[in-house]
Protein backbone atom coordinates (compact mmCIF):
# COMPACT_ATOMS: atom_id res chain seq x y z
CA UNK A 1 0.00 0.00 0.00
CA UNK A 2 1.13 3.54 -0.80
CA UNK A 3 -0.04 6.66 1.06
CA UNK A 4 -0.38 10.02 -0.72
CA UNK A 5 -0.89 13.25 1.21
CA UNK A 6 -2.70 16.21 -0.41
CA UNK A 7 -3.02 18.97 2.17
CA UNK A 8 -4.58 21.36 -0.36
CA UNK A 9 -6.85 18.92 -2.21
CA UNK A 10 -9.11 20.46 -4.85
CA UNK A 11 -12.25 19.85 -6.78
CA UNK A 12 -10.93 20.15 -10.35
CA UNK A 13 -13.60 21.61 -12.62
CA UNK A 14 -13.20 21.88 -16.40
CA UNK A 15 -15.42 24.20 -18.44
CA UNK A 16 -15.51 23.95 -22.22
CA UNK A 17 -16.54 27.19 -23.94
CA UNK A 18 -16.71 27.89 -27.70
CA UNK A 19 -14.14 30.72 -27.31
CA UNK A 20 -13.00 32.59 -24.21
CA UNK A 21 -13.35 36.38 -24.58
CA UNK A 22 -12.42 38.52 -21.57
CA UNK A 23 -15.27 40.74 -20.29
CA UNK A 24 -17.91 38.82 -22.26
CA UNK A 25 -20.60 36.40 -21.08
CA UNK A 26 -20.18 32.72 -21.95
CA UNK A 27 -22.48 29.74 -22.00
CA UNK A 28 -20.48 26.73 -20.76
CA UNK A 29 -21.16 23.83 -23.12
CA UNK A 30 -19.59 21.06 -21.02
CA UNK A 31 -18.75 20.74 -17.32
CA UNK A 32 -16.57 17.98 -15.88
CA UNK A 33 -15.43 17.52 -12.27
CA UNK A 34 -12.90 15.26 -10.62
CA UNK A 35 -10.79 15.05 -7.46
CA UNK A 36 -7.66 17.17 -7.83
CA UNK A 37 -4.53 18.28 -6.08
CA UNK A 38 -1.18 16.60 -6.79
CA UNK A 39 -1.47 13.73 -4.28
CA UNK A 40 -4.88 12.72 -5.61
CA UNK A 41 -3.58 12.81 -9.21
CA UNK A 42 -0.63 10.61 -8.14
CA UNK A 43 -3.07 8.21 -6.42
CA UNK A 44 -5.18 7.85 -9.58
CA UNK A 45 -2.12 6.90 -11.66
CA UNK A 46 -0.87 4.48 -8.97
CA UNK A 47 -4.29 2.80 -8.88
CA UNK A 48 -4.25 2.49 -12.70
CA UNK A 49 -0.86 0.74 -12.35
CA UNK A 50 -2.47 -1.77 -9.96
CA UNK A 51 -1.33 -0.38 -6.58
CA UNK A 52 -3.57 0.02 -3.55
CA UNK A 53 -3.42 3.64 -2.42
CA UNK A 54 -4.70 5.45 0.64
CA UNK A 55 -5.23 9.19 0.23
CA UNK A 56 -5.14 11.69 3.06
CA UNK A 57 -5.00 15.46 3.51
CA UNK A 58 -7.99 17.71 4.16
CA UNK A 59 -11.50 17.83 2.71
CA UNK A 60 -14.32 20.11 3.84
CA UNK A 61 -17.53 21.85 2.89
CA UNK A 62 -19.81 20.91 0.02
CA UNK A 63 -16.90 20.94 -2.46
CA UNK A 64 -15.09 18.46 -0.16
CA UNK A 65 -18.19 16.28 -0.10
CA UNK A 66 -18.37 16.35 -3.92
CA UNK A 67 -14.67 15.44 -4.11
CA UNK A 68 -15.20 12.45 -1.76
CA UNK A 69 -18.28 11.34 -3.73
CA UNK A 70 -16.10 11.23 -6.85
CA UNK A 71 -13.38 9.25 -5.01
CA UNK A 72 -15.74 6.65 -3.53
CA UNK A 73 -16.22 4.49 -6.65
CA UNK A 74 -12.51 4.58 -7.66
CA UNK A 75 -11.03 1.07 -7.47
CA UNK A 76 -7.92 0.58 -5.25
CA UNK A 77 -8.22 4.06 -3.68
CA UNK A 78 -9.10 4.34 0.04
CA UNK A 79 -10.30 7.73 1.27
CA UNK A 80 -8.63 8.74 4.56
CA UNK A 81 -9.06 12.50 4.09
CA UNK A 82 -9.37 14.43 7.35
CA UNK A 83 -12.33 16.78 7.90
CA UNK A 84 -11.83 20.53 7.92
CA UNK A 85 -14.48 23.20 8.62
CA UNK A 86 -13.51 25.34 5.60
CA UNK A 87 -14.50 24.33 2.09
CA UNK A 88 -12.12 22.45 -0.19
CA UNK A 89 -10.89 24.78 -2.94
CA UNK A 90 -11.98 24.58 -6.55
CA UNK A 91 -9.54 24.78 -9.43
CA UNK A 92 -11.13 25.76 -12.71
CA UNK A 93 -9.72 25.02 -16.16
CA UNK A 94 -11.53 26.91 -18.93
CA UNK A 95 -10.85 25.16 -22.23
CA UNK A 96 -11.30 27.25 -25.36
CA UNK A 97 -12.80 24.83 -27.89
CA UNK A 98 -11.60 26.98 -30.81
CA UNK A 99 -7.89 26.84 -29.90
CA UNK A 100 -7.67 24.04 -27.31
CA UNK A 101 -5.91 26.48 -24.96
CA UNK A 102 -6.64 26.40 -21.23
CA UNK A 103 -7.09 29.30 -18.81
CA UNK A 104 -6.58 28.21 -15.21
CA UNK A 105 -8.18 29.79 -12.10
CA UNK A 106 -7.10 28.36 -8.74
CA UNK A 107 -8.83 29.16 -5.44
CA UNK A 108 -6.50 29.52 -2.42
CA UNK A 109 -7.94 26.73 -0.26
CA UNK A 110 -9.62 26.62 3.18
CA UNK A 111 -8.04 28.09 6.28
CA UNK A 112 -6.93 25.16 8.44
CA UNK A 113 -7.08 25.80 12.20
CA UNK A 114 -4.32 24.71 14.62
CA UNK A 115 -6.74 22.13 16.11
CA UNK A 116 -7.46 20.68 12.65
CA UNK A 117 -3.74 20.47 11.89
CA UNK A 118 -3.06 18.70 15.22
CA UNK A 119 -5.89 16.24 14.59
CA UNK A 120 -4.48 15.55 11.10
CA UNK A 121 -1.00 14.88 12.54
CA UNK A 122 -2.48 12.26 14.87
CA UNK A 123 -4.31 10.51 12.04
CA UNK A 124 -1.18 10.66 9.83
CA UNK A 125 0.97 9.11 12.59
CA UNK A 126 -1.45 6.24 12.73
CA UNK A 127 -1.44 5.83 8.92
CA UNK A 128 2.38 5.73 8.56
CA UNK A 129 2.55 2.93 11.13
CA UNK A 130 0.09 0.72 9.19
CA UNK A 131 1.43 -2.69 8.30
CA UNK A 132 2.42 -3.09 4.66
CA UNK A 133 2.88 0.61 3.93
CA UNK A 134 5.53 0.75 1.17
CA UNK A 135 5.92 4.52 0.67
CA UNK A 136 4.49 7.94 1.42
CA UNK A 137 4.21 10.85 -1.04
CA UNK A 138 3.76 14.42 0.20
CA UNK A 139 2.42 16.51 -2.65
CA UNK A 140 1.56 20.07 -3.55
CA UNK A 141 0.98 23.41 -1.91
CA UNK A 142 -0.06 24.10 1.68
CA UNK A 143 -3.49 25.59 2.42
CA UNK A 144 -3.67 28.75 4.55
CA UNK A 145 -3.10 28.05 8.26
CA UNK A 146 -0.87 24.98 7.85
CA UNK A 147 2.63 25.75 9.23
CA UNK A 148 5.30 26.26 6.56
CA UNK A 149 7.36 23.49 8.18
CA UNK A 150 4.46 21.03 7.79
CA UNK A 151 6.25 18.74 5.33
CA UNK A 152 9.34 18.59 7.54
CA UNK A 153 7.11 17.30 10.37
CA UNK A 154 5.45 14.72 8.10
CA UNK A 155 8.85 13.59 6.74
CA UNK A 156 10.25 13.07 10.25
CA UNK A 157 7.16 11.05 11.25
CA UNK A 158 7.48 8.82 8.15
CA UNK A 159 11.20 8.30 8.71
CA UNK A 160 10.59 7.45 12.37
CA UNK A 161 8.14 4.80 11.14
CA UNK A 162 10.84 3.60 8.67
CA UNK A 163 8.70 4.28 5.62
CA UNK A 164 10.34 5.84 2.53
CA UNK A 165 8.99 9.32 1.86
CA UNK A 166 8.88 11.38 -1.36
CA UNK A 167 8.35 15.15 -1.36
CA UNK A 168 6.94 17.10 -4.32
CA UNK A 169 6.35 20.74 -3.47
CA UNK A 170 7.92 24.14 -4.01
CA UNK A 171 9.16 27.30 -2.31
CA UNK A 172 9.69 27.49 1.43
CA UNK A 173 7.79 24.22 2.20
CA UNK A 174 10.29 22.46 -0.15
CA UNK A 175 13.29 24.17 1.47
CA UNK A 176 12.16 23.19 4.99
CA UNK A 177 11.15 19.72 3.81
CA UNK A 178 14.52 18.96 2.19
CA UNK A 179 16.28 19.77 5.45
CA UNK A 180 14.23 17.01 7.16
CA UNK A 181 16.01 14.45 4.93
CA UNK A 182 13.27 12.95 2.72
CA UNK A 183 14.18 9.83 0.73
CA UNK A 184 13.30 11.46 -2.59
CA UNK A 185 12.48 15.00 -3.76
CA UNK A 186 11.14 15.60 -7.27
CA UNK A 187 11.49 19.27 -8.13
CA UNK A 188 11.04 20.63 -11.63
CA UNK A 189 13.70 22.95 -13.11
CA UNK A 190 12.08 26.13 -11.70
CA UNK A 191 11.62 24.67 -8.21
CA UNK A 192 15.19 23.39 -8.23
CA UNK A 193 16.55 26.80 -9.26
CA UNK A 194 14.47 28.51 -6.56
CA UNK A 195 15.79 26.05 -3.95
CA UNK A 196 19.47 26.15 -4.90
CA UNK A 197 19.95 29.43 -6.76
CA UNK A 198 21.48 27.50 -9.67
CA UNK A 199 19.93 27.24 -13.15
CA UNK A 200 22.40 24.49 -14.13
CA UNK A 201 20.40 21.27 -13.51
CA UNK A 202 23.34 18.91 -12.80
CA UNK A 203 24.84 21.27 -10.26
CA UNK A 204 21.48 22.20 -8.75
CA UNK A 205 20.50 18.54 -8.36
CA UNK A 206 23.74 17.75 -6.51
CA UNK A 207 23.27 20.86 -4.37
CA UNK A 208 19.69 19.82 -3.46
CA UNK A 209 21.07 16.47 -2.35
CA UNK A 210 23.67 18.16 -0.14
CA UNK A 211 20.83 20.10 1.52
CA UNK A 212 19.45 16.82 2.89
CA UNK A 213 17.49 14.79 0.31
CA UNK A 214 18.76 11.22 -0.05
CA UNK A 215 17.81 11.24 -3.73
CA UNK A 216 16.91 14.10 -6.04
CA UNK A 217 14.96 13.45 -9.23
CA UNK A 218 14.70 16.65 -11.27
CA UNK A 219 12.04 16.76 -13.99
CA UNK A 220 13.31 18.65 -17.03
CA UNK A 221 10.03 18.75 -18.96
CA UNK A 222 10.28 17.24 -22.43
CA UNK A 223 13.95 16.37 -21.76
CA UNK A 224 13.05 13.73 -19.16
CA UNK A 225 14.58 13.25 -15.71
CA UNK A 226 17.92 13.76 -14.01
CA UNK A 227 18.49 11.70 -10.85
CA UNK A 228 21.21 11.83 -8.22
CA UNK A 229 20.94 9.08 -5.60
CA UNK A 230 23.09 7.17 -3.11
CA UNK A 231 23.31 4.39 -5.75
CA UNK A 232 24.52 6.68 -8.53
CA UNK A 233 23.36 9.29 -11.03
CA UNK A 234 21.21 8.81 -14.15
CA UNK A 235 19.69 10.70 -17.02
CA UNK A 236 16.43 9.31 -18.45
CA UNK A 237 15.10 10.64 -21.75
CA UNK A 238 11.93 9.83 -23.72
CA UNK A 239 12.63 8.18 -27.13
CA UNK A 240 10.89 11.06 -28.89
CA UNK A 241 9.41 14.48 -28.15
CA UNK A 242 5.68 14.22 -27.55
CA UNK A 243 3.12 16.99 -28.04
CA UNK A 244 0.08 17.63 -25.90
CA UNK A 245 -1.01 18.97 -22.52
CA UNK A 246 1.70 18.78 -19.83
CA UNK A 247 -0.86 19.12 -16.98
CA UNK A 248 -0.31 16.22 -14.58
CA UNK A 249 2.88 14.97 -16.26
CA UNK A 250 4.87 15.66 -13.09
CA UNK A 251 2.29 13.80 -10.96
CA UNK A 252 2.54 10.81 -13.29
CA UNK A 253 6.35 10.88 -12.91
CA UNK A 254 5.90 10.80 -9.11
CA UNK A 255 3.55 7.81 -9.47
CA UNK A 256 6.17 6.06 -11.64
CA UNK A 257 8.90 6.63 -9.04
CA UNK A 258 6.69 5.50 -6.15
CA UNK A 259 5.39 2.38 -7.86
CA UNK A 260 8.97 1.42 -8.77
CA UNK A 261 10.03 2.02 -5.17
CA UNK A 262 7.14 -0.10 -3.84
CA UNK A 263 8.07 -2.89 -6.28
CA UNK A 264 11.75 -2.59 -5.24
CA UNK A 265 12.87 -1.93 -8.81
CA UNK A 266 16.41 -0.62 -9.36
CA UNK A 267 16.68 3.13 -10.02
CA UNK A 268 17.06 2.94 -13.82
CA UNK A 269 13.77 1.00 -14.10
CA UNK A 270 11.99 3.46 -11.82
CA UNK A 271 13.21 6.38 -13.93
CA UNK A 272 12.19 4.70 -17.21
CA UNK A 273 8.73 4.12 -15.81
CA UNK A 274 8.46 7.74 -14.62
CA UNK A 275 9.54 9.14 -18.01
CA UNK A 276 7.21 6.84 -20.00
CA UNK A 277 4.22 7.65 -17.74
CA UNK A 278 4.97 11.33 -17.95
CA UNK A 279 5.07 11.33 -21.76
CA UNK A 280 1.94 9.13 -21.92
CA UNK A 281 0.19 11.79 -19.81
CA UNK A 282 1.18 14.64 -22.14
CA UNK A 283 -0.38 12.85 -25.14
CA UNK A 284 -3.58 11.70 -23.36
CA UNK A 285 -6.75 13.47 -24.55
CA UNK A 286 -7.97 14.14 -20.97
CA UNK A 287 -5.63 16.37 -18.91
CA UNK A 288 -3.93 14.42 -16.10
CA UNK A 289 -4.83 10.95 -17.38
CA UNK A 290 -2.19 8.77 -19.07
CA UNK A 291 -2.61 6.87 -22.29
CA UNK A 292 -1.88 3.16 -21.50
CA UNK A 293 -0.85 2.15 -25.02
CA UNK A 294 1.60 5.08 -25.32
CA UNK A 295 2.96 4.08 -21.92
CA UNK A 296 3.65 0.45 -22.90
CA UNK A 297 5.01 1.57 -26.26
CA UNK A 298 7.48 4.07 -24.75
CA UNK A 299 8.54 2.15 -21.61
CA UNK A 300 11.11 -0.19 -23.21
CA UNK A 301 12.48 2.66 -25.34
CA UNK A 302 13.32 5.20 -22.63
CA UNK A 303 17.09 5.81 -22.71
CA UNK A 304 18.60 5.69 -19.20
CA UNK A 305 22.30 6.54 -19.03
CA UNK A 306 24.60 6.61 -16.01
CA UNK A 307 26.04 9.98 -15.02
CA UNK A 308 29.19 10.84 -13.18
CA UNK A 309 28.07 12.41 -9.90
CA UNK A 310 31.02 14.32 -8.57
CA UNK A 311 29.14 15.29 -5.43
CA UNK B 1 -46.35 37.08 1.03
CA UNK B 2 -44.79 36.99 -2.46
CA UNK B 3 -43.69 33.82 -4.25
CA UNK B 4 -40.74 33.84 -6.66
CA UNK B 5 -40.01 30.89 -8.95
CA UNK B 6 -36.44 30.20 -10.16
CA UNK B 7 -36.48 26.99 -12.20
CA UNK B 8 -32.79 27.35 -13.09
CA UNK B 9 -31.44 28.58 -9.74
CA UNK B 10 -27.67 28.99 -9.53
CA UNK B 11 -24.85 29.17 -7.08
CA UNK B 12 -23.33 32.54 -8.05
CA UNK B 13 -19.57 32.49 -7.53
CA UNK B 14 -17.38 35.58 -7.91
CA UNK B 15 -13.60 35.27 -8.35
CA UNK B 16 -11.37 38.29 -8.02
CA UNK B 17 -8.08 38.00 -9.92
CA UNK B 18 -5.34 40.63 -10.30
CA UNK B 19 -5.76 40.58 -14.11
CA UNK B 20 -7.43 38.01 -16.37
CA UNK B 21 -5.13 36.77 -19.14
CA UNK B 22 -6.48 34.08 -21.48
CA UNK B 23 -4.41 30.85 -21.52
CA UNK B 24 -2.51 31.79 -18.33
CA UNK B 25 -2.76 30.40 -14.80
CA UNK B 26 -4.31 32.64 -12.13
CA UNK B 27 -4.33 32.62 -8.35
CA UNK B 28 -7.82 33.69 -7.23
CA UNK B 29 -7.39 36.26 -4.46
CA UNK B 30 -11.01 36.37 -3.28
CA UNK B 31 -13.93 33.96 -3.60
CA UNK B 32 -17.53 34.89 -2.77
CA UNK B 33 -20.65 32.78 -3.18
CA UNK B 34 -24.35 33.54 -2.98
CA UNK B 35 -27.69 32.18 -4.16
CA UNK B 36 -28.36 33.25 -7.74
CA UNK B 37 -30.82 33.02 -10.57
CA UNK B 38 -33.27 35.84 -11.27
CA UNK B 39 -36.05 34.75 -8.88
CA UNK B 40 -33.61 34.48 -5.97
CA UNK B 41 -32.18 37.93 -6.76
CA UNK B 42 -35.72 39.34 -6.83
CA UNK B 43 -36.46 37.66 -3.48
CA UNK B 44 -33.41 39.22 -1.85
CA UNK B 45 -34.47 42.73 -2.92
CA UNK B 46 -38.08 42.11 -1.83
CA UNK B 47 -36.84 40.95 1.58
CA UNK B 48 -34.69 44.08 1.88
CA UNK B 49 -37.84 46.13 1.19
CA UNK B 50 -39.55 44.36 4.10
CA UNK B 51 -41.64 41.76 2.26
CA UNK B 52 -41.94 38.11 3.24
CA UNK B 53 -40.94 35.98 0.26
CA UNK B 54 -41.16 32.28 -0.44
CA UNK B 55 -38.74 30.99 -3.07
CA UNK B 56 -39.29 27.89 -5.15
CA UNK B 57 -37.80 26.24 -8.23
CA UNK B 58 -35.24 23.43 -8.21
CA UNK B 59 -32.11 22.79 -6.14
CA UNK B 60 -29.95 19.67 -6.25
CA UNK B 61 -26.51 18.19 -5.64
CA UNK B 62 -23.80 19.68 -3.46
CA UNK B 63 -24.10 23.06 -5.19
CA UNK B 64 -27.83 23.03 -4.39
CA UNK B 65 -27.02 22.25 -0.78
CA UNK B 66 -24.55 25.15 -0.64
CA UNK B 67 -27.16 27.47 -2.17
CA UNK B 68 -29.74 26.43 0.47
CA UNK B 69 -27.18 26.84 3.26
CA UNK B 70 -26.66 30.44 2.08
CA UNK B 71 -30.45 31.05 1.96
CA UNK B 72 -31.19 29.65 5.43
CA UNK B 73 -30.02 32.66 7.50
CA UNK B 74 -31.66 35.26 5.17
CA UNK B 75 -34.40 37.11 7.04
CA UNK B 76 -37.92 37.10 5.50
CA UNK B 77 -37.00 34.42 2.88
CA UNK B 78 -38.61 30.97 3.14
CA UNK B 79 -36.96 28.17 1.16
CA UNK B 80 -39.50 26.02 -0.71
CA UNK B 81 -37.09 24.83 -3.43
CA UNK B 82 -37.96 21.39 -4.83
CA UNK B 83 -35.31 18.66 -4.90
CA UNK B 84 -33.78 17.52 -8.18
CA UNK B 85 -31.25 14.69 -8.69
CA UNK B 86 -28.95 16.79 -10.91
CA UNK B 87 -26.68 19.44 -9.44
CA UNK B 88 -27.68 23.10 -9.35
CA UNK B 89 -25.62 25.02 -11.90
CA UNK B 90 -22.83 27.43 -11.00
CA UNK B 91 -22.47 30.84 -12.58
CA UNK B 92 -18.99 32.29 -12.33
CA UNK B 93 -18.12 35.98 -12.53
CA UNK B 94 -14.38 36.60 -12.88
CA UNK B 95 -13.64 40.17 -11.83
CA UNK B 96 -10.42 41.67 -13.15
CA UNK B 97 -9.15 43.81 -10.25
CA UNK B 98 -7.06 45.95 -12.63
CA UNK B 99 -9.96 47.11 -14.81
CA UNK B 100 -13.06 46.17 -12.78
CA UNK B 101 -14.39 44.30 -15.83
CA UNK B 102 -16.25 41.02 -15.40
CA UNK B 103 -16.03 37.84 -17.48
CA UNK B 104 -19.08 35.63 -17.00
CA UNK B 105 -19.20 31.81 -17.34
CA UNK B 106 -22.64 30.20 -16.94
CA UNK B 107 -23.20 26.45 -16.58
CA UNK B 108 -26.30 25.08 -18.36
CA UNK B 109 -28.11 23.67 -15.31
CA UNK B 110 -29.25 20.19 -14.26
CA UNK B 111 -31.40 17.95 -16.46
CA UNK B 112 -34.85 17.87 -14.86
CA UNK B 113 -36.76 14.59 -15.33
CA UNK B 114 -40.48 14.46 -16.20
CA UNK B 115 -41.17 13.00 -12.73
CA UNK B 116 -39.31 15.90 -11.06
CA UNK B 117 -41.25 18.43 -13.15
CA UNK B 118 -44.57 16.78 -12.22
CA UNK B 119 -43.64 16.76 -8.53
CA UNK B 120 -42.73 20.45 -8.78
CA UNK B 121 -46.08 21.31 -10.40
CA UNK B 122 -47.89 19.66 -7.47
CA UNK B 123 -45.87 21.63 -4.92
CA UNK B 124 -46.37 24.87 -6.88
CA UNK B 125 -50.17 24.32 -7.05
CA UNK B 126 -50.17 24.07 -3.29
CA UNK B 127 -48.04 27.23 -2.91
CA UNK B 128 -50.22 29.42 -5.15
CA UNK B 129 -53.27 28.49 -3.08
CA UNK B 130 -51.67 29.61 0.20
CA UNK B 131 -53.64 32.23 2.11
CA UNK B 132 -52.19 35.73 1.89
CA UNK B 133 -50.22 35.21 -1.32
CA UNK B 134 -50.08 38.65 -2.98
CA UNK B 135 -48.18 37.88 -6.18
CA UNK B 136 -46.07 35.31 -8.03
CA UNK B 137 -42.96 36.07 -10.12
CA UNK B 138 -41.68 33.56 -12.70
CA UNK B 139 -38.09 34.40 -13.49
CA UNK B 140 -35.24 33.38 -15.74
CA UNK B 141 -34.24 30.59 -18.09
CA UNK B 142 -35.47 26.99 -18.07
CA UNK B 143 -33.07 24.17 -17.17
CA UNK B 144 -32.71 21.26 -19.61
CA UNK B 145 -35.69 18.88 -19.48
CA UNK B 146 -38.32 21.42 -18.39
CA UNK B 147 -40.95 21.78 -21.16
CA UNK B 148 -40.71 25.02 -23.14
CA UNK B 149 -44.34 25.76 -22.24
CA UNK B 150 -43.53 25.53 -18.51
CA UNK B 151 -44.23 29.18 -17.75
CA UNK B 152 -47.58 29.02 -19.58
CA UNK B 153 -48.58 26.16 -17.23
CA UNK B 154 -47.42 28.07 -14.14
CA UNK B 155 -49.24 31.24 -15.29
CA UNK B 156 -52.51 29.35 -15.80
CA UNK B 157 -52.22 27.77 -12.34
CA UNK B 158 -51.60 31.17 -10.70
CA UNK B 159 -54.49 32.77 -12.56
CA UNK B 160 -56.80 29.89 -11.61
CA UNK B 161 -55.82 30.60 -7.98
CA UNK B 162 -56.57 34.32 -8.63
CA UNK B 163 -53.02 35.43 -7.80
CA UNK B 164 -51.40 38.12 -9.98
CA UNK B 165 -48.42 36.71 -11.88
CA UNK B 166 -45.37 38.45 -13.38
CA UNK B 167 -43.19 36.82 -16.04
CA UNK B 168 -39.55 37.74 -16.67
CA UNK B 169 -37.90 35.44 -19.20
CA UNK B 170 -36.85 35.42 -22.87
CA UNK B 171 -37.11 33.53 -26.15
CA UNK B 172 -39.66 30.79 -26.70
CA UNK B 173 -40.57 30.43 -22.96
CA UNK B 174 -41.53 34.15 -23.05
CA UNK B 175 -43.53 33.75 -26.28
CA UNK B 176 -45.47 30.78 -24.87
CA UNK B 177 -45.83 32.46 -21.48
CA UNK B 178 -47.29 35.69 -22.90
CA UNK B 179 -49.98 33.68 -24.70
CA UNK B 180 -51.13 32.33 -21.29
CA UNK B 181 -52.10 35.92 -20.29
CA UNK B 182 -49.81 36.84 -17.40
CA UNK B 183 -50.69 40.00 -15.44
CA UNK B 184 -47.28 41.58 -16.12
CA UNK B 185 -44.33 40.81 -18.39
CA UNK B 186 -41.05 42.69 -17.97
CA UNK B 187 -38.92 42.20 -21.07
CA UNK B 188 -35.82 44.25 -21.82
CA UNK B 189 -35.40 45.88 -25.23
CA UNK B 190 -33.72 42.81 -26.79
CA UNK B 191 -36.30 40.37 -25.43
CA UNK B 192 -39.12 42.62 -26.60
CA UNK B 193 -37.63 42.86 -30.10
CA UNK B 194 -37.18 39.08 -30.24
CA UNK B 195 -40.80 38.58 -29.15
CA UNK B 196 -42.43 41.11 -31.46
CA UNK B 197 -39.96 41.62 -34.31
CA UNK B 198 -40.07 45.38 -33.66
CA UNK B 199 -37.12 47.46 -32.43
CA UNK B 200 -39.36 50.44 -31.74
CA UNK B 201 -40.11 50.12 -27.98
CA UNK B 202 -43.51 51.89 -27.95
CA UNK B 203 -44.86 49.79 -30.77
CA UNK B 204 -43.25 46.57 -29.50
CA UNK B 205 -44.69 47.12 -26.01
CA UNK B 206 -48.20 47.56 -27.40
CA UNK B 207 -47.70 44.50 -29.61
CA UNK B 208 -46.57 42.38 -26.62
CA UNK B 209 -49.75 43.42 -24.83
CA UNK B 210 -51.88 42.37 -27.80
CA UNK B 211 -50.22 38.93 -27.63
CA UNK B 212 -51.81 38.36 -24.23
CA UNK B 213 -50.00 40.14 -21.38
CA UNK B 214 -52.33 42.36 -19.32
CA UNK B 215 -49.49 44.80 -18.68
CA UNK B 216 -46.09 45.13 -20.35
CA UNK B 217 -43.24 46.90 -18.57
CA UNK B 218 -40.27 47.21 -20.90
CA UNK B 219 -36.90 47.98 -19.33
CA UNK B 220 -34.87 50.33 -21.51
CA UNK B 221 -31.62 50.19 -19.56
CA UNK B 222 -30.36 53.61 -18.44
CA UNK B 223 -33.47 55.22 -20.02
CA UNK B 224 -35.81 53.68 -17.45
CA UNK B 225 -39.10 51.89 -18.06
CA UNK B 226 -41.97 52.04 -20.54
CA UNK B 227 -45.28 50.58 -19.33
CA UNK B 228 -48.51 49.80 -21.14
CA UNK B 229 -51.32 48.62 -18.85
CA UNK B 230 -55.12 48.45 -18.71
CA UNK B 231 -54.99 51.64 -16.58
CA UNK B 232 -52.91 53.61 -19.09
CA UNK B 233 -49.36 54.02 -20.39
CA UNK B 234 -46.35 55.59 -18.63
CA UNK B 235 -42.72 56.39 -19.15
CA UNK B 236 -40.52 56.42 -16.02
CA UNK B 237 -36.99 57.88 -16.18
CA UNK B 238 -34.25 58.12 -13.57
CA UNK B 239 -33.40 61.75 -12.63
CA UNK B 240 -29.80 61.24 -13.79
CA UNK B 241 -27.67 58.70 -15.61
CA UNK B 242 -25.86 56.44 -13.15
CA UNK B 243 -22.63 54.56 -13.75
CA UNK B 244 -21.76 51.13 -12.46
CA UNK B 245 -22.51 47.43 -12.92
CA UNK B 246 -25.93 46.73 -14.49
CA UNK B 247 -25.94 43.09 -13.24
CA UNK B 248 -29.19 42.53 -11.35
CA UNK B 249 -30.74 45.90 -12.26
CA UNK B 250 -33.58 44.12 -14.10
CA UNK B 251 -34.21 41.85 -11.10
CA UNK B 252 -34.42 44.91 -8.83
CA UNK B 253 -36.95 46.47 -11.21
CA UNK B 254 -39.06 43.28 -10.96
CA UNK B 255 -38.86 43.48 -7.16
CA UNK B 256 -39.99 47.12 -7.33
CA UNK B 257 -42.98 46.23 -9.50
CA UNK B 258 -43.97 43.27 -7.31
CA UNK B 259 -43.64 45.12 -4.01
CA UNK B 260 -45.77 47.96 -5.41
CA UNK B 261 -48.34 45.44 -6.61
CA UNK B 262 -48.42 43.72 -3.20
CA UNK B 263 -48.84 47.11 -1.51
CA UNK B 264 -51.62 48.04 -4.02
CA UNK B 265 -49.78 51.16 -5.15
CA UNK B 266 -50.96 52.88 -8.34
CA UNK B 267 -48.91 52.14 -11.46
CA UNK B 268 -46.87 55.41 -11.48
CA UNK B 269 -45.66 54.69 -7.92
CA UNK B 270 -44.74 51.11 -8.81
CA UNK B 271 -42.78 52.33 -11.83
CA UNK B 272 -40.95 55.00 -9.82
CA UNK B 273 -39.95 52.39 -7.26
CA UNK B 274 -38.75 50.00 -9.98
CA UNK B 275 -36.65 52.71 -11.68
CA UNK B 276 -35.10 53.94 -8.41
CA UNK B 277 -34.26 50.39 -7.26
CA UNK B 278 -32.78 49.57 -10.63
CA UNK B 279 -30.50 52.64 -10.62
CA UNK B 280 -29.55 52.00 -6.96
CA UNK B 281 -28.46 48.49 -8.03
CA UNK B 282 -26.23 49.79 -10.84
CA UNK B 283 -24.31 52.04 -8.42
CA UNK B 284 -23.99 49.47 -5.57
CA UNK B 285 -20.45 48.20 -5.01
CA UNK B 286 -21.58 44.52 -4.87
CA UNK B 287 -23.18 43.25 -8.11
CA UNK B 288 -26.92 42.60 -7.68
CA UNK B 289 -27.29 44.42 -4.35
CA UNK B 290 -28.94 47.86 -4.21
CA UNK B 291 -27.64 50.87 -2.37
CA UNK B 292 -30.40 51.95 0.09
CA UNK B 293 -29.35 55.60 0.33
CA UNK B 294 -29.23 55.99 -3.47
CA UNK B 295 -32.66 54.35 -3.59
CA UNK B 296 -34.25 56.79 -1.12
CA UNK B 297 -32.46 59.71 -2.77
CA UNK B 298 -33.69 58.83 -6.29
CA UNK B 299 -37.22 57.57 -5.48
CA UNK B 300 -38.96 60.98 -5.15
CA UNK B 301 -37.08 62.29 -8.21
CA UNK B 302 -38.04 59.67 -10.81
CA UNK B 303 -40.02 61.37 -13.58
CA UNK B 304 -43.16 59.39 -14.48
CA UNK B 305 -45.13 60.79 -17.42
CA UNK B 306 -48.35 59.51 -18.95
CA UNK B 307 -48.19 58.25 -22.52
CA UNK B 308 -50.85 58.08 -25.16
CA UNK B 309 -51.42 54.37 -25.79
CA UNK B 310 -53.12 54.14 -29.12
CA UNK B 311 -53.38 50.39 -28.83
UniProtKB/TrEMBL annotation, chains A, B:
Keywords tagged on the record: ATP-binding, Kinase, Nucleotide-binding, Transferase
Cross-referenced Gene3D superfamilies: 3.40.1190.20
InterPro entries noted in UniProt: Carboh/pur_kinase_PfkB_CS, PfkB_dom, Ribokinase-like, Tagatose/fructose_Pkinase
Domain of life assignment: Bacteria
Residue span, Carbohydrate kinase PfkB domain: 11-284
Pfam families: PfkB
Keyword Secreted assigned: no
SUPFAM superfamilies, per database record: Ribokinase-like
Sequence similarity: Belongs to the carbohydrate kinase PfkB family.
Protein known as: 1-phosphofructokinase family hexose kinase
Amino acid sequence: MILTVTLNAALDITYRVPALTPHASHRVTEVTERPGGKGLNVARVLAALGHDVTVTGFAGGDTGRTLRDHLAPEPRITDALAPVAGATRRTLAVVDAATGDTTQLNEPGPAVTPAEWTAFLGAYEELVHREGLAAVALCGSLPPGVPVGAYAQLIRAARAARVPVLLDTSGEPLRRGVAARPDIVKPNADELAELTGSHEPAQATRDARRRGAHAVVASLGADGLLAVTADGGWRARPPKRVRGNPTGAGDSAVAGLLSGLAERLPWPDRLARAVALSAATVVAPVAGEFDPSTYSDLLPRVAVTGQVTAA
